[in-house]
Amino acid sequence: xxxxxxxxxxxxxxxxxxxxxxLNALSLPMLRDITAALLAWRHDDRVEVVALRGEGKEGPFxxxxxxxxxxxxxxxxxxxxxRLEDFFSEEYALNHLVHVYPxxxxxxxxxxxxxxxxxxxxxxxxxxxxxIATERTKMAMPETNxxxxxxxxxxYFLSRCPGHIGEYLALTGHVIGGADAMAAGLADTxxxxxxxxxxxxxxxxxxxxxxxxxxxxxxxxxVLAAQRGDIDRIFGLPTVKAIVDALEADGGLWxxxxxxxxxxxxxxxxxxxxxxVRRARAMDLAEELRMERGLVRRCxxxxxxxxxxxxxxxxxxxxxxxxxxxxxxARIEDVKAEDWQAFFEPVWPAAAHPLRDLVG
Length: 360
Known about the structure:
2-enoyl-CoA Hydratase, Chain A, domain 1, 7-stranded mixed sheet, 46% helix, ECH_dom, HIBYL-CoA-H, alpha/beta
């Protein structure tokens, strides 16, 4: 069975991520299949609206996408596999395609929506896209936990969250539900999971009209609303050390728990991520994705092979599963400015950049 099922049903182009045992983690062939479907339907008059969902372990829906296939990243980095470069170039180009897609998109963000799943879900322009969360949505950009940064355009959409929610989500990798996703500007409505199958079918029958008829519901405030004042006050501070110092001096339970989380993340990548989000606020998506493409090359090349912070983070989480990454440097206080600034040095001349053709 194909890992991506793409079919036209009535007026809709329907894409199902079909790798449920891996929570629909994206492989390079999956990226290529999704891209091919979107390109084929872009000018197909039969298709009024395009919808994406994930197959769950118990049937359609229940899990959208857990991100990129990090086991593949680990193996490819150690083996010097050139497909690693292809993966990120093609994934980021797909993120941009979603952003500029000329037809309405419906993204069914039921269950896990993390990393690369956010890259598929987070970039539709609001006037043409409905990002649908449910009571089962578990959304996060948890890359600092594996020595990476919130890529797939994460700097772009996180930097556009209200206040300093973006820095908070980017640095901590905090998991949020549907209500918080709406509060952060990362979802457009929250529907009951039981209503999704009927809407999926209705898109085929009524096309874009079915999407326009979906109610935009405002759920009860979530956790982010309760902590918004603290988030803006602390995560708006200028440096990672200032943020952690403020959390540890606060004395409250939320601040204590948040500081503990940050102390477990890659100290080096926390610095990279804060700079990424701050720079991204002044960039369009194409510019931000080009920056990210350089960052991800640096993640695997500044310290090649097993010395890579990203390779070590994946080893600890998904390969050896000891959950004890050996970060280098080991402490936030030990990261020097030149350590994280090296990630932002250009990798390619502008005319040779693998994403040079992206616009806006």
